[in-house]
Amino acid sequence: MIVGNGNFLFLTQERQKSARTKGDIQKLMDEVCTIKEILKDAKQCPHCKMAISKIEGCNKMTCWNCGRFFCYQCSAAISGYDHFNGDCVIFDEAEIDRWQMPMNRRLHRMVVGQAQVALLARGHAYPYPTCGQAIRKIGNNNHLYCWSCNQHCCALCRTSVQKMSQHFGPTGCKQHTENP
C-alpha cells in the first residue's frame, strides 16, 4: 500500500501515540501493583491517613507525615505508652525473638568460654592447635576433633592430624592411652 507523505506521517504519529499509551498503561498497572503490595502490610495513620509500614521495632508508631503517634497493632491514635497496658503489646513475640537471638548467641559464647576455662584449669581439656578452642579428650581416645574449626589433632603431641593412619600407628602416637 502506498501512502502519500502527509498520510504516512499521520500514521507514524498515531502508531507512536498508541505505543506510548500502551507503555503508560503498563506503567500505571505496575504502580497500582506496587501500591497494593505496600498497602498489604501498611497501616493508615488515624490522623492524616498516610500509609505507614513497620520494618522492625515496637508498635508505637510516629507518622512521618503528621508527626503524631498511633498503635501499629490496632491503628488507634495514642499519646504515650499507657495504651500498651491492655490488649495491645509494645513488642510482638516475633520482634522479641528477633532481638533475643543475638543476646542468646552472646550468652552461649560466654557460657562456653567459662566452661572452657574451667576445663583447661582442671587439666581435662586441651587448647586446639589451630584455633585455640578448648577441647576435651573423650575416654582414652587421643584422636580429637574440634567442632569450631573442623580439624583433627592428637591429644598426646598436640599437633594437627591430616591422615589418622599415618599419625596413629606403630611409628606414631598411640591412639588410645589412659588419662594422666
From TrEMBL:
Naturally occurring in which organism (per UniProt): Aegilops tauschii subsp. strangulata (Goatgrass)
Domain RING-type span(s) in chain numbering: 1-177
Chain segments annotated as transmembrane: none
Stored PROSITE patterns: TRIAD
Protein name: RING-type domain-containing protein
Keywords on record: Metal-binding, Repeat, Transferase, Ubl conjugation pathway, Zinc, Zinc-finger
GO molecular function: transferase activity; zinc ion binding
